[in-house]
Amino acid sequence: MSPPVFAVVGRVNKGKSSIIATLAEDATVEISPRPGTTRRLTRFPVKVDDATQFELVDTPGFEDASRALHWLRAETITADARPARVRALVEAFAGTGDLSDECTLLEPILAGAFVIYVVDGSQPFRANYEDEMEILRWTGRPGMALINRIADDDHAPAWRPALQQYFSVVRDFDAHAATFAQRIGLLRAFRELDAGLAPALDRAVEALVAQRRRRRADVADAMTDLLVDAITLTLEARAAGKDALATVELERRFHEALRDTERRARAKVATLYKHPGQWADDDVGRPVFDADLFAEQVWEGLGLSSGQLLVALTLSGAVAGGTLDAMVGGASWGTGAAIGAAVGAVSGGVHAARRMARATRLRDALRGKGGGKLYRVGPHQNPNFPFVLLDRALLHYDAVLRRTHARRDLATVATPERRAGGHEPSAQGTSERGASAALDRATRAALVSAFAKVRKNFEDPPRQARDAIHAQVRALVEATDHAAGGEIGRG
Ligand SMILES: Nc1nc2c(ncn2[C@@H]2O[C@H](COP(=O)(O)OP(=O)(O)OP(=O)(O)O)[C@@H](O)[C@H]2O)c(=O)[nH]1
Ligand SMILES: [Mg+2]
Questions:
Q1: Tell me: the pLDDT tens digits for 194-245?
Q2: Cα–Cα distance between 440 and 54 in angstroms, integer?
Q3: Nearest Cα to Cα of residue 180 among 142, 221, 211
Q4: What is the DSSP-derived secondary structure letter of residue 298?
Q5: Closest-lying ligand to the alpha carbon of 34?
Q6: What DSSP letter does each residue of 378-389 carry, written as one string?
Q7: CA neighbours within 13 Å on the CB side: how many for 421?
Q8: Threshold 0.85, pTM exceeds
Q9: Which of 82, 204, 300, 358 is the most buried if burial means most Cβ atoms within 10 Å?
Q10: How far is CA 74 from CA 71, 85, 100, 359, 392, in A?
């Protein structure tokens, strides 16, 4: 059986192509505020694992429905002869240049496509829409009306009773903001158009849900790799004599490598959801997208608070174990004095001063041939660093999930300040900081401890610690997906 075909039709500039882009997850569909953007019939097969589940057909908008209907009505016929009469219209006008948009959009419908009629519910209903709906009715094909909203006004109450006279199903669908769950809901509604559609659409829903789960699991893997790679990264360089510039350069390269690691992880996540363009490398650096990984305001808004960090370090035993020594610059702390000193150090903002890692000279014993002194930078010692990275990764993931493929504006990631300003709704919107600050104490401590183990054994991170990180990341990824409207259950 060939997959079902849906022709998306309506007046120019109502969001037909936008609906196709969102449903087909295709960011390349031509969309613009200019009426008449779509000039030709374009087929978009919706594939999962190379199997076409169904096909969407983009069409140009009605050009002169009133004249086309006038032609159709010029002969007196009974209702059963109407589909043939529409076919006669297409045959009479195709290739003449007259009523060419009508001919183009009717062709797939006459060939058996189901009709999806798109209107803009932010504009008032007018009698002249009745002509195009009447033509669609004459085709005899089952159809659904979708009320999209391009602006803020709501005229849907006037549209509904009119649409219900022509279409068996009438639904709202927001091309710009539809969630995964809403997309699935729409596919389920398509089943009502024709009894024969159920098996194909059930298969499509099942395939899409399975794909969503696989993507989510892949995101958890990519984020875990990001965290482990970032806290195990080291760079070494040899410098002759007392060469301060060499260490500065080494540190610069180190932090740039960390930014790169983050960029690559973001690209991987965006690509999984077929969002290549909007998260291109140069966009990541733009202030509008979000601030630099090592910017002070990023560290102020994300990761754990000083208090949380201290509690987590204490619970995980890291305070006595040397992590804090690294944080405060290598000074030695007696175990008894550690907590008191840590309170002062952490709340005094010492950890904030260690956003950037520093190069140190390796002992002579480690010197190889080639002369000069050997310097190393990394692993990044700040215990908050992986939490900051994790929060940024989850914010980015959230933005990817919420972005439909109909959007053509520049993508942004919601930083806590921006969310507080009410511009960007977000899954983590309930927390003042990022997602990691909202974790319970035991989880924060378990993560601090796992991060510390990985960092300490940076040359060969222990499997168990990595698995512990993965388990927490996976839970956070699932919660983010769930909150962003991917309500498909766990697993
Ligand atoms: N805010 C908002 N804008 C939308 C939405 N859907 C479409 N638009 C905008 O409306 C304009 C027209 O969208 P298209 O998808 O190109 O409309 P179309 O019906 O395919 O237009 P033609 O191909 O010209 O017939 C574009 O500027 C879209 O960005 C929506 O749900 N919300
Ligand atoms: Mg279009």
A1: 999 999 999 999 999 999 999 999 999 999 999 999 999 999 998 876 677 8
A2: 44
A3: 211
A4: H
A5: 1
A6: -S---TTHHHHH
A7: 7
A8: yes
A9: 204
A10: 5, 10, 19, 86, 64
Provide the β-strand partners of residue 145: 117, 170
Q: Nearest C-alpha to atom 11 of ligand 1 is from which residue?
A: 33
**Position 332: which residue type?**
S
Terminal C-alpha separation, the chain: 31
Query: Tens of pLDDT along 388-442?
Result: 999 999 989 998 999 999 998 776 655 544 444 443 444 444 446 789 999 999 9
Average pLDDT, 10 consecutive residues per value, the chain (491 residues): 95 97 95 95 95 97 96 97 98 96 98 98 97 98 98 97 98 96 96 95 96 97 98 91 80 94 93 74 42 81 86 74 49 43 49 72 62 88 94 91 88 52 42 83 95 96 98 97 78 42
Return d(Cα 108, Cα 44) in angstroms, integer.
13
Cis preceding-peptide flag for 35 (omega within 30 of 0) = no
């904030």: which residue's tokens?
A: 352
Tokens 């984020």 correspond to 223
Ligand nearest to the CA of 119: 1
Domains and their CATH numbers in the chain: 5-176 (3.40.50.300), 214-483 (no CATH)
Kindly give the distance from the C-alpha atom of residue 36 to the centroid of ligand 1, in angstroms, as a whole number. Answer: 11
Q: Are 139 and 110 in contact (CB under 8 A)?
A: yes
The H or E element that residue 59 is part of is none
Q: What's the rounded Cα separation, in Å, for the pair 18 and 20?
A: 5
The protein residue with its alpha carbon nearest to ligand 1, atom 2, reads 150
Cα–ligand 1 centroid distance for 437 (angstroms) = 39
Which of 7, 212, 241 lies closest to 110, judged by CA? 7
Q: Hey, which of 59, 129, 150, 152 would you mutate to test ligand 1's pocket, going by the most ligand atoms within 8 Å of its Cβ? A: 150
What would the two tokens of residue 365 be? 């014993």
Q: Give the up-direction half-sphere exposure of residue 274: CA atoms within 13 A in the CB hemisphere.
A: 18
- Ligand nearest to the Cα of 151, by number: 1
